[in-house]
C-alpha cells in the first residue's frame, strides 16, 4: 500500500474553527476527516511521514477583520478553535507545522510555517529526502491551494487528494483545482493513493 521512499503526506488545517460550528467553518469541512484518517492509516502502515499544518494566529493578527484583514477571528493559538478536529486520528509521530504565528502574516501556505524546533517545512522535507508530497485538508481555495503551489514551485511532485479536501466557496474550489493542476500538481483520490503498490 502506498509504496515507500521519498513520499510524505501533508494534512492541511483540519481544525475546529474550520469545521462544523467553528468561527470560519468550511461547508462540508467535517467530510474530509474520515478519508484523511484512511490516508493517515495507510501512510503509517507504509512508514510514510505525516505532517499536519495548523493556523496558529496571535490575537492581534492582521489576518482578522478586527485588524483590517478579511476574516473573522479564528484559530487563535492555544484556543479550542485552533485544536485539530477531535475525530482526526493524528499518529503520535505526526509532525506539526504551525503557521500564521506573526501578527503581520496570513500564513496560508504550510511552507510558511515551522515545526516546534523552528525548522521550516521545506527543510524538514529535504532532510527526509522527500520528493513527492500528497496533500489533503482545508480549505481547497486557500491553504491547500497555497501549500500545493509552493510545493510545486519548490520542485516537489505534488498530488492533491480531491475527495479529502473542501472549499470555502464551491466556485473558488473549482478554480483552485484547475490552477493547481495547471501548475503541475496531479489530482487524485483516496482510493488511487491507497491502491498504489
Describe this structure in words.
- The chain is 27% helix and 19% strand.
- The chain has 197 residues and is an alpha/beta fold.
- The longest helix is centred in the N-terminal third of the chain and has 14 residues, at 33-46.
- It is globular, with a radius of gyration of 15 Å.
Summarize the structure.
This protein has 197 residues and is an alpha/beta fold. It is 27% helix and 19% strand. The protein has 5 helices and 6 strands, in the order E-H-E-E-H-E-H-E-H-E-H.
Using the coordinates shown, work out and report the CATH topology: Rossmann fold
Number of domains: 1
Question: Which CATH architecture is right?
Answer: 3-Layer(aba) Sandwich
Overall average pLDDT: 95
> Number of helical runs?
5
Sequence-ordered SSE layout with sheet pairings:
Elements: E1 7-12, H1 33-46, E2 50-55, E3 95-99, H2 121-127, E4 132-138, H3 140-153, E5 157-166, H4 170-183, E6 186-188, H5 190-194
Give descriptors for this structure.
single chain; 197 residues; alpha/beta; Rossmann fold; six-stranded parallel beta sheet; 5 helices; 6 strands; 19% strand; globular
Amino acid at each position: 500500500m502506498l509504496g515507500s521512499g521519498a513520499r510524505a503526506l501533508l494534512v492541511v488545517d483540519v481544525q475546529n474553527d474550520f469545521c462544523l460550528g467553528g468561527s470560519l467553518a468550511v461547508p462540508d469541512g467535517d467530510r474530509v476527516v474520515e478519508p484523511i484518517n484512511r490516508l493517515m492509516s495507510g501512510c503509517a502502515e507504509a512508514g510514510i511521514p505525516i505532517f499536519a499544518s495548523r493556523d496558529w494566529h496571535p490575537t492581534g493578527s492582521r489576518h482578522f477583520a478586527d485588524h483590517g484583514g478579511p476574516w473573522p477571528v479564528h484559530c487563535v493559538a492555544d484556543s479550542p478553535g485552533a485544536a485539530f478536529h477531535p475525530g482526526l486520528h493524528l499518529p503520535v509521530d505526526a509532525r506539526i507545522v504551525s503557521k500564521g504565528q506573526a501578527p503581520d502574516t496570513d500564513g496560508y501556505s504550510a511552507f510558511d510555517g515551522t515545526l516546534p524546533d523552528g525548522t521550516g517545512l521545506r527543510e524538514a522535507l529535504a532532510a527526509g529526502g522527500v520528493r513527492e508530497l500528497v496533500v489533503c485538508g482545508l480549505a481547497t481555495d486557500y491553504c491547500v491551494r497555497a501549500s500545493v503551489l509552493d510545493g510545486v514551485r519548490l520542485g516537489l511532485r505534488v498530488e492533491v487528494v480531491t475527495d479529502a479536501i473542501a472549499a470555502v466557496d464551491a466556485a473558488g474550489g473549482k478554480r483552485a483545482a484547475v490552477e493547481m493542476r495547471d501548475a503541475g500538481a496531479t489530482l487524485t483520490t483516496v482510493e488511487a493513493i491507497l491502491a498504489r503498490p
